[in-house]
């Protein structure tokens, strides 16, 4: 399901989030704390204090999806910036899920198509 949405914007809730929150609690957090619309076609990603679990909130047509991932070993390279929310690309989101840092110095830069006249 997540692999089908590569064109969507991804928002990370920096710091830790109490993952006991359900869909409604996370949607309220998106709306009130981040001033974003939980019904928008975006992914909202939350991480626990130990950085070994994440929840992803996603609106789809007529209902929410709540994706949950738990690592058996290791931790997510979760951002610890002073802001509440960080907007990242889908490519950076895949790096995060693969255990990589959001700042990949050796990654190839994305090539944008040019229009040929």
The total count of strands amounts to 5
Low-confidence stretches: none
Strand order of the largest sheet: 4-3-2-1-5
By DSSP (H or I, 4+ residues per run), the number of helices equals 2
> From N to C, what is the helix and strand string?
EHEEEEH
Rg of Cα set? 15 Å
Sheet/helix structural class: alpha+beta
Termini separation comes to 38 Å
- Main beta sheet strand tally, sense and closure: 5 strands, mixed
Number of discrete domains: 1
Strand fraction equals 25-35%
Percent of residues in helices comes to 10-25%
| Gross morphology | globular
**Mean pLDDT over the residues:** 86
In words, what does this structure look like?
With 117 residues, the chain is α+β, with helices and mostly antiparallel strands. It has one domain (2-97). It is 16% helix and 26% strand. The protein has a five-stranded mixed sheet. The longest helix is centred in the first third of the chain and has 11 residues, at 23-33. 17% of the residues are buried. The mean pLDDT is 86.
